[in-house]
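For this section, I looked closely at the sequence of one protein beside the tokens encoding its backbone, which the following lines show:
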Amino acid sequence: MSQKIVPNLWFTRNADEAGGFYSEVLPKTSSTVSARYPDEVPDWQSEFAGETLVVDLDVDGYRIALINADEGFRPNPSISFMLNFDPLAFDDDADAARRALDETWEGLSSQGRVLMELGEYPFSRRYGWVEDRFGVSWQLILTDPEGEPRPFVIPQLMFAGPVQGKAQEAAEYYVSLFDDARLGFIAEYPAPTGPAAAGDVMFGEFHLAGQPFAMMDSAVEQDVTFGYGVSLEVRCADQAEIDRLWEALSAVPEAEQCGWLADRYGVSWQIVPANMGELMERPGAYDTMMRQKKIVIADY
């Protein structure tokens, strides 16, 4: 099954460097330049003419897109990526899985910022949360081989600040919009913990288009919330699907641009046709996209 929802990460003129970095420090990862800026761009983008626009990461079969742009936005921990080191993926060798986790942690934390120290926690014998040198956040966890198999990469949405306590509400809303979607396991805070109320989501899972996501309400006050540094690109089958999702999700009119929108919780989405790459190869496609808010396929 193709990946319908692809996380996009914003980089400040260094997506090529980041692609090389992740290819080195993340297991089973490769990077490829998948799109370039046209040779003729608006004056305000002149420095990018002919340069890399998108770098595709393949992380053990999971796709993440790196957008090469200006300093407008930066990822933050409101959307992070859980890396599940399952001993079953290492020939049922927990020591090998732990060594791989530790090596990955060393690479990601170099020149980065530790958010939760690598160590033993009640929920895992080995876990840590780190923001790497590019501002992208990763949670590394040694999973229980007796538990359900988990994919290596799972995006996690952290609800904090203006959307504190909204994790389950948001997940239920997203599930209502996508096919092959459902809520999964949810663990609640048993008592008030920092800004989280009793009954808020301590950890939860949901699936959209068959893909797993995780969510939580923050247990500590945060100075970040959802923004444009990480967006979720949805590859739609046709204009009808674009129209439906755009109408359901877009809640900030001033954020609408080139297929981008922000929803009622501040999460950024890109609602695009599945053949967007093909459309962008047509004459004048870049100028057409730059003029659009919602993508209208017939305009290309």
Remarks:
- The two ends are 27 Å apart (CA to CA).
- The chain has two domains: 5-74+226-279, 79-217.
- The chain has a mean pLDDT of 96.
